Structure formats: structure tokens, C-alpha cells
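User: I'm curious whether this sequence folds into something compact or stays loose and floppy. Could you predict its structure so I can see for myself?
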Amino acid sequence: MEPIDRTRCLNLSQPLLQKMKKLRKQAQELLQSARKVYDYRHDVMTEARLKDLNQAVDELNTLLQTTSTVAESLQAAMQRLDALLRKIGGKIYPKTFWSDNIEVALVAAILVIGVRTFFFQPFIIPTNSMYPTYSGMNAVVYDATTSPSMLMTGINKIRLGSNHYEALATQGGDVQVPVFSHAYNSADLAMRGQGVARFSIVQGRKWFGLMPIQLREYAFNVGTESVALRVPLDFNLDDVICQTFFPQHQSLADVLLNQHRQQRINVTSSAPALLTGATLKPGESVVEFDITLGDALFVDRLSYHFKRPEAGDPFVFRTRDIRGIEGGSHNYVDKYYIKRVGGVGGELLEIKDGALYADGTARNEVAAFTDNAARAGEYTGYINQNLLAKGQQLFIPTDKFVALGDNSGNSLDSRYWGFVPEHAIIGRAIFIYYPFTRRWGPAE
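Assistant: Here's the prediction. I'll summarize afterward.
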């Protein structure tokens, strides 16, 4: 009698073992589908169908738990359950792309909304009121010699989240920039505090035209034609215009004052206009620039449920219930602002020589306080204005907070419109996740 070749027997049984393993996995998935069909449709199935389903599930479960089950028996039971599920499964079974993925997408959306509502909310800083700690939208201005290639525009889009803008002259001629009138009792009174260059607010679209959005629309006079350019609502084009046409001046406000003194403002058109001295040919750029994305950060919405904001915290709050603030309760527009907690309820604040004082002591809880006091680097110090004018102290009520921008000279904050009520606070800024600059990382 020949000896048994155990190695050969093991090799022969290996494919069978692999087949059984695969069948058992498929059987488990089929049972999961059966449970899902039951959960979603048992209330619309007849008693007879429910009985058939229970029997088919029990049969397959028994075979799975029996070690001596052969492949043919397992396959037959799976086929019987599959055939039954196809009759009673409705849109749940058999699986399709939509039935299999819509539920996953809905669950993911619910999780995202839940996290955003109760834990971490993304927030993009639109302005530079907190610069240099955080950066808002900024412009990179180009001329004919520095205009970026399509490749560089794409790289900047990925790295900095920048968008490219360009307005082209439709005809040749001299370039003029319409400005808001500063005449006493002018109809521009409500708008001229938002910039020098004239703009209107228009309706636009974002997200492939799905969402309505408000935009600023600027117009340049080139010859006898008007060239329009739309930018985000929170973006002020004054600096772009100044760098493009008046690089020798620090601001467009300086240009306006200078041209007014020299009587070089065109007042013959429907709106006063600055004479730029530039002459363009058809197709040439009036202005060309990138707008880089403001710092995108996560806001911790949870912590302030357990502790009160502290002096120095970078915090986000809603504006709707703050009278006097842009977008406040006087016009029922709700916005989000990010500032730093300059003071909490019960404190007496004062600004002296660029430093912020609380109850007679200079604030030093965070670097922004001490850097502003020392005018270190790009910090220019806190500026006395309105409620915190020179020599004036401000007492903070118990349930209120004072919000101050780190860039005091470019911040519309509590010095102008007062206190932030506790119920308006959303959370604390904790992490800058985009763009990839030196500020990326934990929020200061």
C-alpha cells in the first residue's frame, strides 16, 4: 500500500478552503442585506412573505454555523434567499449605485452638519482687521511685465486659494476712476465710508450658479466706454487701483485729496472721477490682480459652553443683535466677525500710547497685546477712537465683552459700536488649515 502524500492532499484542499471562505463572506453580506430589507420594508410586507424571509434567513444562518456544511448547500441556500429578496426588496435590493451610496452620502452629510453645528465650524477671514495675526483677502497686483502664466495662476490657486481678475479695455482712451462724492449732504453719504472708488452692490452666483451671492461691481471709464469688474462683497478695490495708477501715493484717499486740491477731479460726468493719466489701447488691461483667500480656520463651538471667553481669546460672534455694527440689527443682516477679546464683564478698559489697559494694568495675556503695545513688527498699536478715545475709560457690563482687532487702524470694532453680548458668541478660533503660509497651524 502506497503511503499517503499529505502535502498533495493539502494542496488539493486549498482551493476548496478558499472557495468556502469566499462563500461564507458572501453569505454574511447577503444576510446583512436581508436585515436591511426587513428594517425598511417589514411594515409593508405580508405575513406570508415575512415567514418566508425568516425561514430563508434561519436556513442560511444554520448552514454558516455548521462546520460540515458543503459549498453546494451553502450556494443553494444563498440562491433561495437572493431570489426572495429580489421579490420583496423594492428599491433596497438588489443594490444599485444610488441605493448603495445615497444613504452613505446622507449619513456623511448629517455627520458633517452635526460636527459643524456643535463642535468645529470652518470660517474664512474676509478682512484684515486681525492682521498680522490673521490675514484676510489680499491683492497681488500685476502689470504687463509681471502678468502670471496660466501655470502660475493654477499653482497660486492651489497654494493660496487665489482667484485671478482682469478688466480689459473695450476701446482705447484715457482711464478715469469714478469715486463717491464727498460733498455735504451727498447721496453717497452711506457708501463713502466703505471706500473711495465708486461701486454698486449687485447679485451674482457661486457654486456653479446654484447659490445666490452679493458682489461689488466697480466701473472704470476708458474713453467713452465703461468697463465693469465684479469682486467679492467684502473686498475693497481701492488699494488695487492705487497700486495700478497711483503707486507714488499710500492710499486712494490721499490721491483723492491731492487731486481735489489740484482741481483735477472730473465732475462733468454723472459721478466724480479721478484722472489716472493712463491711456490704453483696445484689449489692454485696465487692472489685473489676484485676490488671495483669507485665512481659513476652524472655530471651536464647544468650549464656551463650559467656560467663559477670556481676555486675549480670538473669538467669532454674530452681528445681528449688535446695534450700530455693519450688518447689525438695524437692517436684520446676520454676519460673522472675528476679533480678539479685549475685555470681559466687570473690567475698566483704556488705551494709552498704543497699549491696552484693564483696571489700570497693561494687558499681556497674549502676544498681540504686548506686540501692539511695543509696536513690534507689523503691529502698529491700539488707536484711540470713539468709546475708547484718548483719556476715556470704558466700563464693561457683566454679561458683555469688548472685541478689538489686532490691526487697530483697520478694524471696525467695539471702539465704534460697543459691546458683544454673550449670546452672540459662536466660539474660539483654534486652527488655521488653509492656505499654506507661515500662519498655518494653531490659531494665536
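Summary: The mean pLDDT is 87. Residues 6-88 form a domain with the Substrate Binding Domain Of Dnak; Chain:A; Domain 2 fold (CATH 1.20.1270).
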